[in-house]
Amino acid sequence: MFVFANLVTTVAGLLSLVINLYIFVIIVAAFLSWVNPDPYNAIVRTLRALTEPVLYRVRRHLPFVMVNGIDLSPIVVLVALQLLNGVVVQSLMQLGLKLSGV
Question: Per residue of the chain (102 residues), what is the pLDDT tens digit?
Fold first, then answer.
């Protein structure tokens, strides 16, 4: 049973890491949107490829996130990621600790 507990705890840790990395990517992409970066730059293209699918879906389903030309969809995504991190990851961590008997 301890193997399953370790697996659950490890999955929770990896999920937390991925969520935190994506939060960092969203923040960097939001900062880049304030300036006019070269759209042919590889870093800019990678950041857009990583963030635009999610941000586009938020804009499409929640049209009120565009306020006077200001895009608030990164804030919505950041809040959703923090909720996911707080609820799902912490629940998995607690489950893993409960299964291990600590």
Answer: 788 999 999 999 999 999 999 999 999 999 998 898 888 999 999 999 999 999 999 999 998 888 888 889 999 999 999 999 999 999 999 999 898 887
DSSP secondary structure string for all residues of 32-97:
HHHS---TT-HHHHHHHHHHHHHHHHHHHH-GGGEETTEE-HHHHHHHHHHHHIIIIIHHHHHHHH
Q: Tell me how far apart the alpha carbons of residues 36 and 46 are, in angstroms, rounded to a whole number.
A: 16
Q: By CB neighbour count within 10 A (0-12 exposed, 13-18 middle, 19+ buried), where does 83 fall?
A: exposed
Instruction: For residue 85, give both structure tokens.
Output: 């991190």
Count of structural domains within the chain: 1
